[in-house]
Amino acid sequence: MKEEFVPKIIGFVCSWCSSAGADVAGSAQLNVPSSFVPISVMCSSRVDPTLILAAFLRGADGVLVAGCRPRDCHYENGNYYARRRFALVKNIIKSLGLEPERLRLSWIHGSEGQRFADVVTQFAEHVKGLGPNPARKRIDL
Amino acid sequence: MTKGAVIPKKGTTEKAILDFIKEAWEKNCFDSLLIPVEIPSGDSYTYLLIQDPSLIENASPLPPITSVQGARAISSITRKGKVTKRIAAIMRPCEIKAGMELHKLEQADLENVVLISVDCPGALPLSDYVPDSKTGKEKFLKVLKEWGGESVRPVCKTCLHFGAELGDLHIAILGDENSIYLIPNSDKGKEMLRSLGISAEENLPGWDTKISEIKKKKEENKKKSEEQLESEVLGLDRLLETFSKCIGCHNCMRACPICYCASCYFDSDNTEHDGTDYVDRAENKGALKFPCDTLFFHLGRMSHMSLSCLGCGSCEDACPMSIPVAQLFSFVGQKNQELFGYFPGMDKEEKVPLVVYKEKEFEEFEDSH
């Protein structure tokens, strides 16, 4: 029997708004794909481009960075820096002809449980359509 | 119309430049000189910080190669703070830009440094010049005559800043066989010429025309080079093939003037894993090549320095496996610099893009794939 492709998504989730949103989703028992692997970071600005690259090159089918909405960052302006860093990495991946569509940045407010579930589900659907990350099988990476 | 001073040549172009430098030194425009000098064995050049004006005779303001990246010499001298003696530094435009960028990154202090650039026809690859410098010197004479040509490094063929007025004073050698032009580009440069009684108010149409002509050709080269990159290097398969020769020596990072970190992340323990990690990966994939995580190093280095990449080519010169690393890094660097509207090495006061932000920007990156 052919195995259905279940995309593995690595999510860098900030400990304040985004995690709270994730908790709300959990308490409300909303459906969130189980292949989503959340990694807590204190702030989305902790996400160095190399973290995104490591996840991508190690074979993650999708990489999500989730932080507080602009003006709501727990550390005031971390998410603004995060947005610039994300734009930089995504542009590098795009310029090199790799797959920038496997990277996503989303702002999720602490109360937005449904939005958290929606973001992850939509992203998983989108990544499923892209197929497995070819980096996973490369021995010369 | 660019304005500058017209200085008649008495002999070769290099002599004319050195004569001007000697005069400026004698008249106390600066205290010491940082300039390339040929090494005794005759097969390379290095930077000398000269305090004794009589040693200028062996200096070369336009060497055939860029062995040491000049900005690293400036950084060595001024990283711990500005010097109290005034230093005049003569280097290629890409070295000047790297110096300006390092100043912004707090790795150099340009306060008492006068940056002097010279029209640059390009540099020969180190791997061509060093084993046979006699032929190399002949090739470079041809390069000067043709202004570029096939023997210069690939990144030099597409460089648009060869005649840029960067730094404090630019010495133009194109446009007139019988003179060199001095083009002040800052208050420091203007003050230097003023103190020498040199007026910089003459129009230089010959230079402007020649620069536009050469720029056009370089832009065509750039387009061809991007097309070649797209068909030979971009995409996962071609990228991995290009880097399959990489031996992980990190020479590219060490030679790069922008890579200033005393301890690079990619040399740290963080990039070394437990044996089970490697064995598991080999099991999942069928095999695992060593050195490992090659693309992670290169893409990671891009993410750290590409916004400041000047396309100086030192990385490609340093690669023992002849990987076109400068061509690729400067291509990605330019794409990132366009995205942020940032021009590295041009304005000392402009902050690097990752330390500033706007509340509303890059909205196209939010919630999109």
Describe the structure.
Chain A has 141 residues and is α/β, with parallel strands linked by helices. Chain A has one domain: Lumazine/riboflavin synthase (Rossmann fold). Chain A has four helices and four strands, in the order E-H-E-H-E-H-E-H. Chain A has helices at 17-27, 49-57, 78-95, 113-130, and strands at residues 9-14, 36-41, 62-67, 103-107. Chain A has a four-stranded parallel sheet with strand order 2-1-3-4, with helices on both faces. In chain A, helix 1 crosses helix 4 (113-130). The mean pLDDT of chain B is 94. In chain B, helix 2 (70-78) runs parallel beside helix 3. Chain B has two domains: 3-225, no CATH class; 232-350, no CATH class. Chain B is α/β, with parallel strands linked by helices and 369 residues long. Chain B starts with a strand and ends in a 29-residue tail after the last helix. The chains are: A alpha/beta (141), B alpha/beta (369). Chains A and B meet through helix 2, helix 3, strand 4 and helix 4 of A and helix 9, helix 11, helix 12 and helix 14 of B.
Nutshell version of this structure?
The complex is a heterodimer of chains A (141) and B (369). Chain A is α/β, with parallel strands linked by helices and 141 residues long.
- Termini separation of chain B comes to 46 Å
As a percent range, the share of helical residues of chain B equals: 40-55%
Q: Report the top-level CATH class of chain A.
A: Alpha Beta
Largest interface: A-B, 46 and 46 residues
Q: Helical residue percent of chain A? A: 25-40%
Integer average pLDDT of chain A: 93
Number of strands of chain B: 8
In terms of quaternary structure, the protein is heterodimer
Q: Using only CA atoms, what is the Rg of chain B?
A: 22 Å
CATH homologous superfamily designation of chain A: Lumazine/riboflavin synthase
The unreliable regions of chain A are: none
Terminus-to-terminus distance of chain A: 30 Å
The main pleated sheet of chain A reads as: 4 strands, parallel
Compute the number of structural domains of chain B.
Answer: 2
The average pLDDT score of chain B comes to: 94
